[in-house]
Specification:
Elements lengths: L8 H21 L2 H13 L4 E4 L1 H8 L5 E6 L3 H8 L5 E3 L8 E6 L2 E7 L4 E2 L6 E2 L6 H5 L10 E4 L5 E4 L4 H7 L1 E2 L5 H7 L2 H13 L2 E2 L1 H10 L8 H12 L4 H11 L1 H5 L19 H15 L6 H9 L4 H4 L1 E2 L5 E2 L3 H15 L4 H13 L13 H11 L3 H10 L6 H24 L11 H8 L5 H17 L4 H16 L1
Parallel strand pairs: 2-5, 10-11
Antiparallel strand pairs: 1-2, 1-8, 3-4, 4-5, 6-7, 8-9, 12-13
Helix pairs in contact: 1-3, 7-9, 8-10, 8-11, 13-14, 13-19, 14-17, 14-19, 16-17, 18-20
């Protein structure tokens, strides 16, 4: 047999495969203090143990975390017995009925699931759990071939790579494909369609043509999935390294129409008489630029606000005389739409309010002009943003997508100036806690009031006065309050 030339695509592919597997072996070798004794426990009990799924995929890609997934021929009760006394913690999070035992050893979180060969009723997502007897039967039921690779953890500490569905080839190509026909896979579990978009975002992969076709034809099946599970996948997607690709796949296949319809709705038609910026791609660009401004871990609040900041535009679009287009008050409408969508997806209330407030405030800066704001306006900007101010800074900067370099530089310079003014005011006063110069007790004593609505009105007057004029000494505050109260009584 003639060997392929060293510079041929086949040789290059084989070389990359060898290097990735070698690197994965080194990575897993670093976990031998956990993997070796765990393999010994199962071997001594007469059972097989495999590292499987995303853990193998991530080991090959050099991104393995502290969560390790295993599969075994041992039944759940046997797994519990094997781990008892060895694991630092052992618990049942409701997965025992599905064959999963959860444990912790050192810094590693372990999930060990008995071989499964589930069947689905194709009405709900819940499978009829059936335990299997073979690794191949377990792997073929998994969502994508890149998640259907395994590593045998033997009792002597050795490890053997198993890839009966050729997931490694798909991984090398950066392609997501299903072990079985995608129509059958998605009919069994429609959430897998959303997981495809999530993996596109996290891994930078593409989907196989047949997977894209099935996703498009079966997008409506996602309605069988609960809002909570959809939300989990969306959060993982938007916090991925390539969220734009994942979101665009959702929109192109029709999935977004079912779970996040406000995003594809931003694909507004542009006619020859009334021109406007492509709101959909502008929003994806803002998301990308917001990601570039992050410091450290992904910020889901900032990312959601960047993606959704203009979702109020479709409802507020107006064609103006002369060929212009306006979107008056789209930030107000957008904030309402954010609350409605996130409530439907069962997001926590505080998270929803943070995203909605950023959407509501994202246009405020554009009233700054060339620095015409008074100190009072700057105080209000800071106060209204409150603890979201750092995120608002990033969102406003990311919202500049003009191709006019001079205009883009001018906008960034203007925002630099606003931040300098905020910093200067902070040196003079505590902008983080803009409160009235008199508290409720002082108000009641000065105006001879009992607790009630009038005290609240007086407090709000002093708060507004504080925002307008900055810190006042006590005599000034009392004089202003007394004069205001006389006017109220009159």
């Amino acid at each position: 047999m003639v060997s392929p030339k060293s510079d041929s695509p086949v040789a290059a592919d084989q070389d990359r495969r060898t290097r990735l597997l070698a690197a994965a072996a080194v990575t897993l070798g670093g976990l031998s203090p956990v993997l070796t004794p765990l393999g010994e426990l199962f071997a001594a009990g007469g059972h097989r143990l495999y590292l499987v799924g995303g853990s193998v995929r991530d080991a090959v890609l050099g991104r393995l975390g502290t969560d390790l997934d295993f599969t075994t021929d041992a039944r759940p009760e046997q797994v519990q017995e094997l781990l008892r006394g060895w694991a630092d913690h052992l618990w049942d999070t409701g997965g025992l009925a599905f064959g999963t035992v959860s444990a912790a050893k050192g810094d590693q979180q372990l999930e060990i699931t008995t071989f499964r060969s589930d069947s689905y009723d194709r009405v709900s997502r819940n499978p009829e759990v059936t335990f299997g007897d073979t690794l191949e039967g377990d792997l073929v039921r998994r969502d994508f071939t890149v998640n259907a690779m395994a590593v045998r953890i033997a009792g002597d500490g050795s490890m053997e790579f198993a890839d009966p569905l050729d997931g490694m080839t798909a991984l090398l190509a950066g392609v997501l494909d299903t072990p079985a026909a995608p129509e059958d896979s998605f009919d069994d579990d429609p959430l897998r369609m959303l997981r495809a978009a999530r993996f596109v975002s996290q891994l930078g992969f593409t989907v196989a043509p047949r997977v894209r076709t099935a996703m498009t034809a079966m997008a409506g099946a996602i309605d069988r999935i609960t809002a909570e599970r959809v939300r989990t996948e969306l959060d993982k997607l938007i916090c991925g390294a390539h969220p734009i690709d994942g979101i665009d796949l959702m929109c192109e296949t029709g999935l977004a129409e079912r779970v996040l319809p406000e995003v594809p709705a931003m694909k507004l038609e542009i006619d020859e008489h009334h021109q406007h910026k492509d709101v959909y791609w502008h929003s994806l660009t803002v998301l990308r630029q917001a990601v570039d401004l992050e410091e450290g871990d992904p910020d889901p609040v900032l990312r959601w606000a960047a993606l959704l900041h203009d979702i109020g535009k479709p409802e507020t679009k107006r064609n103006e005389p002369g060929g212009g287009v306006s979107f008056h008050h789209h930030e107000v409408v957008g904030a309402k739409l954010v609350r409605r969508r996130m409530k439907a997806l069962k997001y926590p209330k505080q998270f929803t309010e943070e995203v909605a407030r950023l959407v509501y405030l994202h246009l405020r800066f554009h009233g700054y002009g060339k620095g015409q704001w008074t100190d009072s306006a700057v105080r209000r900007y800071v106060t209204d943003a409150d603890d979201l101010l750092p995120r608002l800074h990033k969102l406003v900067r990311a919202d500049c997508t003009t191709r006019n370099k001079r205009r883009a530089a001018a906008l960034q310079a203007t925002y630099d100036e606003l931040e300098r003014r905020i910093a200067a005011l902070r040196e003079q006063e505590d902008l983080a806690r803009v409160r009235p110069d008199l508290d409720g007790n002082a108000i009641m004593e000065l105006l001879d009031l009992a607790p009630g609505p009038d005290v609240g009105k007086a407090w709000r007057f002093l708060k507004e006065l504080r925002l307008d004029r900055g810190p006042l000494d006590r005599d000034e505050a009392e004089a202003a309050l007394v004069a205001w109260w006389k006017g109220q009584k009159a």
